[in-house]
Amino acid sequence: MKSLLHFLLTIFAVLALTVAAQPQSHTFTAEGIDFKLDGQPFQIIAGEMHYQRIPREYWQNRLQTAHAMGINAVSVYCFWNDHEPEPGKFDFKTGNRDLATFVKMAQAEGLWVILRPGPYACAEWEFGGYPWWLLKEKDMVVRSKDQRFLDAAGKYLTELGRQVKDLQITSGGPIIMVQVENEYGSYGNDKEYLSLTRDMFVKAGFEVPLFTADGPVQCKDGYIPGILPAINGETNPEALIDTVNKYNNGSGPYFIPEYYPGWLDHWGEPKSKVKTDDVVKDIKILLEAGVSFNFYMLHGGTNFGFMNGANYNHEYPIQPDITSYDYDAPISEAGWPTDKYFALKKLIFPYLPEGTVIPEVPERLPVISVPQFRLSESYNLTSSLPKPVKSATILSMEDVNQGYGYILYRTKIAKPVKALLKISELRDFGIIMINGNTVGILDRRLGQDSLEIEVKKPNSTLDILVENMGRINYGRKLTDNRKGITSKVMLGKTELTNWEIFSLPMNKVPVFPKAENKKLTGPVCRRGTFTLSATGDTFLDMSLWGKGIVFVNGYNLGRYWRIGPQQTLYCPAPFLKKGLNEIVVVELLKPDINLIRGLKEPVLDVLKQN
């Protein structure tokens, strides 16, 4: 009997340890007028941040800063193009793509997670998150029932599901809700397409409550029967309740996936600002009404590399977004709590459940200035080119298997001529050169597609360097997003042919050839070094430069452009190192400039003339 009792006690002890080692069990449901966490009404107070816009080394800092404002959940888009840069080659592990780790870090911080996998995201991100390679097939229609698109989207969602399905609240994880598609009612009304997309999510293993997100008017076309309709941009609780009830069988819960405490910015336009008092007033109303909401954005981060998106309207054929995604959000691009942050923190705390514990606001991470230094090495961009693709007619970037960066078109002009050079469908910024000398620029943003040129010598070389300024991420133009030159080039009444086409994707730091002593003209690459005794975040002052991109120790910090409003580039400390640091600049417009410094404060609101 004693042996049996000892055996049973041992078994009970092992079981107790096993249970204790398991993640704490919770439930989350959307029923009636409430979200319920562990069976009790739960008001979601969430904040949006995107792991792919934040250096991995700063994830914990940003999550803690967000939590310290009083939020209880973090909402995150997943950008398909960053996770599948080539067809079938998925990356959910390297750098700031490690979604599962980000979700686990949010849980460790005490935050729930709302996942927004797309496959269309918008988010002022390149192509709304779609991979550029979907455009290689000219007749493929994204965001539709085109089977080729559905197959590609299904594979992405299946792989994403493998990464996070065990991180749902049903398995002890922090993911409580998942969004299907995004603002589809602003794009179309194909309910069959929406249903097919929902089915992909179910097949991928998502079993927490699903929801859609649309504006109040657009919800009619964007909601899916049987899935919670959530309403973006609404600030009137009564209107929110009426809209949701209309499309959800007369019931809630009531959720605003995007409340805007700030707004996005375009090159050449004033920086957007939203008054703190207006935000506090709106949020107080929502808190008192007990409806759930998400700050979009709570912390925006940065469009590193070429990942900014673009908009368009009737006035501007394209409106490229700037590199900074500061968004005038409560937490700045560099992770600093703003006055808006502290006003919201003060407002939110009294509404939190009794006994809620939030962390202290982290101290600002170290910031450094970098004394002005010179970039002493340089070469003409057009003097060191890869092997070209030869084509009788113009080819787009996608035609030559290129997604981002620059592309150079070269042909010969046999005889001297003075005529109008017209580029049909220039996408998006072109530099026109004759025999290596810049003779003009064309900016799609301003509707420019032609200029008068004079060729004085026979057999002259015409170069057209085109920059992809970011694919449109919102609206009907999603289906017309190929880059480079996508139609033809006319000189007078003659179509130019017999092109050499050079891909310059800038996915790696340019390799410098032997130093050149001749005077530089046209687009150039410059390289220099600077030495640090200690690292910290800094902001590279590009206000003297023209237009281009900057690499620091191999990291592409993104685009700069003197027209503003952004005049500095955020360079986070993890991109720097003690001792010698290398910087490479690709400069398109001002070949003689070679001085840079690092500031302790960003400059994001200065406009200049073109």
Describe this structure in words.
By secondary structure, this protein is of the alpha+beta class. The chain has 3 domains: 21-351, Glycosidases (TIM Barrel); 370-379 and 516-599, Galactose-binding domain-like (Jelly Rolls), CATH 2.60.120.260; 385-504, Jelly Rolls, CATH 2.60.120. It is 19% helix and 27% strand. The chain has 10 helices and 34 strands. The strands form 8 sheets. Strands 9-8-7-6-5-4-11-10 form an 8-stranded parallel sheet. Strand 25 (489-491) and strand 26 form a beta hairpin. Helix 5 runs parallel beside helix 6 and helix 9 (276-289) runs parallel beside helix 10 (339-348). The longest helix is centred in the first third of the chain and has 20 residues, at 2-21. The radius of gyration is 26 Å and the shape is globular. The termini are far apart. The model is unreliable at 1-22 (pLDDT under 50).
